[in-house]
């Protein structure tokens, strides 16, 4: 019984982890049809923000929950203004340019902080025990944050003026322009928000994974797979794909070890994309957010 | 552009390649020659991406996957067989087969090009993280230990006939140049065949190609598989040049490099990407020895600048300048002729008036 | 003595969400016929066309071409039956020359020597000789339409499906296109989607009028244009 709970918790954590690292990418992709190859670096920058500010005596919770999204969100706005806005409608060029950006960020951070960072931060919460098994309280906290984040994005999309405008822009550029909405600002804010959520995720994961300039690469494969499998609907797509892929990964990892877990995740995603080229939400729950 | 002019250029390029191969050992130091084999291997990779992306329009961000699989397959097979001939064949087949399977999923699944880019990249990164985990003694194929992030030592190539002497590192240079030149000739021939021209047509407009009766999925699959085989051959040269193969071949940096070569050199040419790979190989090597600026930083800037300012790449931009200049010159010449004729005509008229 | 039915749809339907773009259409076309499909915008004629050509998979119903069930086949499989297709927006190979474009179509069905002569003939026939080496991307709209027609013709199809072949053409170009269509009809059965009444009179064919996803009436142009329902559909909705 305890084992079952511990296992279930592990799988739920795996799913939450996928949601957390993919959500920012999904927002930018879902609303703007831009695949941001610098997504991993947004996570990395979030992590660095947390590590550096806590080293300077900032409270870790404040650093994770406020500073990381703020800093990376601002960087996102800057990137949109300086680069992305010139490439709208050119999907392939956007991919290439954001890849350049990704390298640029890795290079910049390496130049400033070095290829390795000695300082690590430990999770601010200890362990809890479930019968004979112990689990990290911080993982439970991350699950909670993920759920809260999903609810927040849903609420913004559903009820705020920004969400309405964003949904209109998603449907059609012309419609939004006809409504008198400046799509320029919508894209900028969307990109900024996507970046901010990626920064938050990177910050939250920093105590678990540590930070390196090249750490973005470890995130992006999973984030891409999740977003593509999910399709264009931001929340439904990301959640459905995370549950499916995270679930498969968790169960296979438990049965055969982490290596095969990841193989299973990839295999499942490839089969999924072969069957549904537009992702889960391209086939099901089309009208969802 | 007419075909005969292109073919004349191709002949010049092949001749230059052969000349360089023959002259290099007497002109360059041994160290440089050995170092060159790695650059040549990367050039073969660039050639393969130039073929499938530049001509076929297949946006593959993970061309290094086939390159790496070629290298790993060669190494593992050569360790087990104790010789290189069958290992070479097996490595090329393995790379092609992997490309065929991946291509089948993408093309028959009608995956759009942006998704295709992300899928190929993801597959490469997953190979990277999988192979890094194979450090334990249980990860063993036949006699070959995969060795995790330390990789595997690659047995050297040997002569395919008795006495099966292993080749020295400097000889890998010759083999590499031979593969590069033969690969180039094959690719250049391929893009001129009916098959190659259909591939280009699909790049231009896939729906139209379908409407005139071509099964575009099959064409793309075949081209992608050929690209995989060429990249795999490059991988064999690579692990021979370096002496070992590690999972780093699959990392994000190398995937980006391959893309940058083609962007810089130019899509729609085969020489462009090859030259791009040589140029960037020496640029990054030089930057490495300087140690002041980070490679990633420079490569990132190059990629962004090219996408924004020189999207066609250096070689095609240069060719179109050249063509325009020639047109202008021939137009000027024609104008001059006309003016002269007019001048003569008016003189005659004046003469007539005087009479 | 009527000739054989070569294109038939049985209860063909295409729904987009709740919208019935094509609704249980039964359509017959006999050999050597030249049929125009007309109807106001959104009548379903282009969707119907895309179902015939394999660009869309119908929600239900069947498309039968000769004895072959073409429902849900891919465009290249339809083309392989000997069907030539021209889409509404010119679909051409922009980066390639006029000659190369047409050669690719001819070469699909013939060996190299025959393809070469066929390409030459087609270029001659469409009067594209002066621009044969120009990249198609640099040509004017009307010329691009003809290049696409050339690609259709070069394959020597027995059935030709054209979607708005005269769209965006000048009056002169339209006349030339009508002439070409009559010429192609000498050897091939044809379906032409069009909404320009003038143009349809030029090619003087039998007409099928689409309205709200269904066939409203099917007759000669004179009968159709005199029909009060057609007037209602066109004037009542279109130009109100």
Describe, in plain words, how this protein is organized in 3D.
The complex is a heterotrimer of chains A (289), B (355) and C (240). Chain A contains twelve helices and two strands; from the N terminus they run ααααββαααααααα. Chain A is mainly α. Chain A has a two-stranded antiparallel ribbon. In chain A, a hairpin with a 2-residue loop joins strand 1 and strand 2 (133-136). In chain A, helix 5 crosses helix 6 (161-171). The longest helix of chain A is centred in the first third of the chain and has 31 residues, at 2-32. Chain A starts with a helix and ends in a 6-residue tail after the last helix. The mean pLDDT of chain A is 85. Chain B has 355 residues and is an all-alpha fold. Chain B has two domains: 3-312, no CATH class; 313-355. Chain B is 76% helix and 2% strand. Chain B is globular, with a radius of gyration of 24 Å. The model of chain B has no long low-confidence stretch (mean pLDDT 89). Chain C is an alpha/beta fold. Chain C has two domains: 5-82 and 157-238, P-loop containing nucleotide triphosphate hydrolases (Rossmann fold, 3-Layer(aba) Sandwich); 91-156, no CATH class. Chain C is 38% helix and 27% strand. Chain C is built from nine helices and ten strands. Chain C has helices spanning 45-52, 75-79, 98-109, 112-125, 141-154, 171-185, 197-203, 221-226, 228-238; strands spanning 5-16, 19-30, 34-38, 60-65, 68-69, 83-86, 159-163, 189-193, 206-211, 214-220. In chain C, the strands form two sheets. A six-stranded mixed sheet of chain C has the order 6-7-8-3-9-10, sandwiched between helices. A four-stranded antiparallel sheet of chain C has the order 2-1-4-5, covered by helices on one side. Chains in contact: A-B, B-C. Chains A and B meet through helix 4, helix 9 and helix 11 of A and helix 5, helix 10 and helix 12 of B.
């Amino acid at each position: 019984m305890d084992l079952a709970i511990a296992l279930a918790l592990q799988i739920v954590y795996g799913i939450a982890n996928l949601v957390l690292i993919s959500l920012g990418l999904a927002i930018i992709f879902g609303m703007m049809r831009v695949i941001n190859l610098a997504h991993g670096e947004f996570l990395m920058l979030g992590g660095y923000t947390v590590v550096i500010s806590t080293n300077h005596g900032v409270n870790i919770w404040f650093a994770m929950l406020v500073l990381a999204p703020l800093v990376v969100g601002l960087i996102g706005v800057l990137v949109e203004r300086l680069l992305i806005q010139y490439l709208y409608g050119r999907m392939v060029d956007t991919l290439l340019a954001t890849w350049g950006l990704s390298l640029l960020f890795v290079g910049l951070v390496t130049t400033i902080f070095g290829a390795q960072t000695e300082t690590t931060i430990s999770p601010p919460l200890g362990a809890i025990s479930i019968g004979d098994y112990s689990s990290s309280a911080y993982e439970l906290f991350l699950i909670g944050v993920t759920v809260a984040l999903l609810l927040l994005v849903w609420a913004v999309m559903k009820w705020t003026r920004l969400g309405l405008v964003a949904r209109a822009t998603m449907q059609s550029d012309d419609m939004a322009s006809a409504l008198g909405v400046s799509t320029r600002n919508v894209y900028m804010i969307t990109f900024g928000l996507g970046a901010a959520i990626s920064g938050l995720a990177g910050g939250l994961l920093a105590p678990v994974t540590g930070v390196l300039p090249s750490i973005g690469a470890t995130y992006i494969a999973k984030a891409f797979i999740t977003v593509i499998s999910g399709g264009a609907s931001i929340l439904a797509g990301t959640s459905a794909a995370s549950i499916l892929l995270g679930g498969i990964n968790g169960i296979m990892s438990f049965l055969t070890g982490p290596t095969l877990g990841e193989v299973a995740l990839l295999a499942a995603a490839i089969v999924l994309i072969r069957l549904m080229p537009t992702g889960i939400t391209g086939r099901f729950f089309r009208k969802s957010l | 552009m007419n075909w005969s002019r292109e073919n004349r250029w191709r002949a010049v390029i092949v001749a230059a390649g052969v000349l360089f191969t023959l002259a290099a050992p007497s002109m360059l130091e041994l160290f440089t020659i050995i170092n060159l084999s790695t650059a040549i291997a990367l050039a073969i990779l660039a050639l393969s991406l130039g073929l499938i992306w530049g001509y076929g329009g297949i946006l593959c961000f993970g061309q290094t996957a086939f390159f790496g699989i070629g290298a790993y397959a060669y190494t593992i097979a050569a360790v087990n067989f104790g010789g290189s001939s069958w290992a070479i064949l097996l490595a090329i087949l393995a790379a092609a087969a992997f490309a065929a399977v991946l291509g089948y999923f993408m093309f028959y699944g009608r995956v759009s090009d942006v998704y295709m880019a992300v899928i190929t990249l993801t597959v490469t990164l997953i190979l990277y993280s999988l192979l890094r985990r194979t450090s334990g003694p249980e990860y063993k194929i036949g006699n070959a230990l995969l060795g995790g992030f330390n990789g595997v030592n690659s047995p050297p190539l040997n002569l395919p006939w008795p006495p099966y002497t292993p080749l020295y590192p400097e000889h890998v240079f010759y083999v590499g140049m031979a593969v590069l030149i033969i690969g180039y000739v094959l690719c250049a021939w391929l893009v001129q065949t009916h098959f190659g021209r259909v591939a280009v047509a699909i790049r231009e407009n896939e729906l139209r190609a379908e409407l005139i009766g071509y099964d575009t999925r099959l064409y793309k699959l075949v081209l992608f598989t050929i690209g995989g085989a060429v990249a795999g051959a490059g991988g064999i040269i690579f692990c021979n040049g370096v002496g070992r193969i590690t999972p780093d071949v699959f990392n994000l940096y190398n995937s980006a490099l391959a893309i940058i070569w083609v962007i810089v050199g130019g899509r729609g040419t085969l020489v462009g990407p090859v030259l791009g790979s040589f140029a960037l190989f020496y640029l990054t090597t030089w930057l490495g020895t300087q140690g002041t600026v980070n490679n990633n930083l420079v490569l990132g800037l190059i990629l962004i600048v090219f996408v924004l300012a020189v999207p066609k790449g250096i070689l095609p931009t240069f060719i179109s300048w050249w063509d325009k200049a020639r047109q202008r010159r021939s137009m000027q010449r024609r104008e001059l002729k006309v003016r002269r004729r007019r001048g003569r005509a008016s003189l005659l008229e004046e003469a007539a008036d005087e009479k | 003595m009527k000739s054989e039915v070569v294109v038939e749809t049985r209860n063909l339907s295409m729904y987009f969400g709740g919208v019935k773009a094509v609704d249980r259409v039964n359509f017959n076309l006999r050999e050597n016929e030249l049929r125009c499909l007309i109807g106001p915008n959104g009548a379903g004629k282009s969707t119907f066309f895309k179902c015939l050509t394999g660009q869309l998979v119908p929600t239900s119903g069947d498309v039968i071409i000769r004895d072959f069930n073409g429902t849900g086949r891919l465009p290249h499989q339809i083309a392989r039956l000997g069907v030539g297709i021209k889409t509404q927006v010119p679909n051409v190979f922009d980066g390639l020359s006029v000659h190369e474009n047409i050669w690719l179509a001819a070469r699909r069905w013939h060996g190299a020597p025959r393809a070469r002569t066929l390409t030459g003939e087609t270029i001659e026939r469409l009067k594209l000789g002066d621009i044969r080496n120009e990249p198609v991307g640099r040509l004017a709209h009307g010329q691009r339409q003809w290049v696409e027609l050339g690609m259709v013709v070069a394959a020597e199809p027995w059935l030709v499906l054209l979607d708005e072949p005269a769209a965006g053409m000048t009056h002169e170009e339209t006349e030339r296109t009508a002439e070409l269509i009559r010429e192609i009809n000498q050897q091939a059965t044809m379906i032409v989607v069009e909404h320009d009444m003038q143009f349809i009179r030029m090619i003087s064919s039998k007409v099928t009028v689409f309205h709200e996803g269904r066939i409203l009436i099917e007759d000669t142009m004179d009968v159709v244009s005199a029909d009060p329902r057609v007037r209602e559909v066109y004037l009542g909705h279109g130009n109100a």
